[in-house]
Amino acid sequence: MAAAAVVGNDSLQTLGTFLSSNRGRTPLPAQMAFLLGLTAVVLGLGWWLNGGDPAWGRLAQFPLPDAIGWIDLLPPLAVLLLTRWGAPVSTSVLLLTAIAPANAGPVLLRSLIGYGLAFATALLLYGAVLWLLERPLLDAQHSGEPEPELTGVAAAGLEPGDAADAPRWLVLQWLSTAWLWSQWLVHDLANIFILLPRQLQAWQLGLSAAALGGGLCALVAWGGGPIQRMVQDKVNTSHLRSATLIDLLFGALLLALARFSPTPLSTTWVFLGLLAGRELGLLLRLRHRPALEVGAVLVGDLGKASLALALSLAVALLIQPLKAL
User: Fold this and answer.
1) Is residue 23 within 8 Å of 231, Cβ to Cβ?
2) How far is 265 from 249, CA to CA, in rounded Å?
């Protein structure tokens, strides 16, 4: 349940750009094999380096509960329902604080700091430099004609402006996804393994990997689910060049935040901050959409995320009192 909930909701931030930009361009089995291979490497490496702990030691402050009952299904079930609604849930807040409510404050504080850091970084980079890489895509879209760089099979089925999506950008996009997915796993495997022993035997790791792999394959087959719309609403996210830049920047932010502190945080809020800063930076430079329209999208994203966060905290903080009844 935790694996399905975390992967299904957090696909927005980690695989959203990958799924959006590869739709119709690469076979689904190839996408599945790519993600399964990466996951196996990160899981195995974390398990080997941390004495049997595939969560990369990020559960040190979250002791395993003395008893696990049916009530512990409530947090992942809440994540699944909120994901179905299309809300970006802070799985770290909901799943981790349900086990250790005392850690709610530090997790929430780090998440909000992550949002602010991502927003400021994206606003600065896109407003100063990266808008230059986005402008040709928008210009080609407005002209309605593909650029001449792509011809023949490479250009078949691509949208106007996808000339930048030459084979080199496809390779770079997959490499950036590998970078981002590995960084995300280091952060958020804690949410998936929160209810399992802190040291797993090899066969237990294998069962966990199989469950996680099944969820990944379903996610690719479904194209990301309802929450994918939050990525598709943003400018140029279906283009390989734009998706690559987002993935590289998000992965770098996660690496920096992981180095700063071992305390888990909501990577969802970091990603939302990145998208908001990017959209605002491009608006200031390119005026590609009406300001009110962009504002409505960003406020809507923040509103959904805030409501989901409030519900997550309520559910998480109710778990221990319900267990005591």
Assistant:
1) no
2) 17
- 74-85 vs 2-14: helix crossing angle, rounded to 10: 40
**Cα end-to-end span (Å), the chain:** 24
pLDDT tens-digit series, residues 184-207: 898 889 888 988 888 999 999 999
Mean confidence (pLDDT) of the chain:
82
- Of 58-72, 116-130, 143-157, 252-266, the range with the lowest mean pLDDT is 143-157
**What one-letter code names the amino acid at 141?**
Q
Question: CA-CA distance, 317 to 192, in Å (whole number)?
Answer: 19
Query: For the residues of 91-115, what is the DSSP string, one character each?
Result: HIIIIIHHH-GGGHHHHHHHHHHHH
| Tokens encoding 305 | 């995320």
Residue 270: partners with Cβ closer than 8 Å, 6 or more residues away: 13, 111, 114, 115, 117, 118, 250, 253, 254, 257
Closest to 20 in 3D by CA, of 250, 225, 203:
225
User: What tokens were used for 38?
Assistant: 């990466």
Question: Which residues contact residue 205 at a Cβ distance below 8 angstroms, ignoring those fewer than 6 apart?
Answer: 43, 44, 47, 54
Give 166's pLDDT tier (boundaries 50, 70, 90). low
> DSSP for 36-101?
HHHHHHHHHHHHHHTTT-TTTTTTTTSPPPS---GGGGHHHHHHHHHHHHT----HIIIIIHHH-G
- Here the tokens at position 236 are 């140029």
Token code pair at residue 12: 């927005």
Higher pLDDT, 263 or 36: 36
DSSP letter for 64, please: P
Three-state SS for 66? coil
Do the Cβ atoms of 96 and 190 come closer than 8 Å?
A: yes
Count of residues making up the chain: 325
Encoding tokens for residue 242?
């734009």
